[in-house]
Amino acid sequence: MGTQAPVVVAVARDGGHHFSKPLVDEVVLVAGWGIEGDAHAGTTVQHRSRVARDPSQPNLRQVHLLHAELFDEVADAGFEVAAGDMGENVTTRGIDLLGLPAGTVLHLGESASVRVTGLRNPCQQINGFEPGLLKAVLGRAEDGSVERKGGVMSVVLTGGSVRPGDAVRVELPEGEPEPLQPV
Question: What are phi and psi of 98, to 5 degrees?
Answer without folding.
Answer: -70, -20
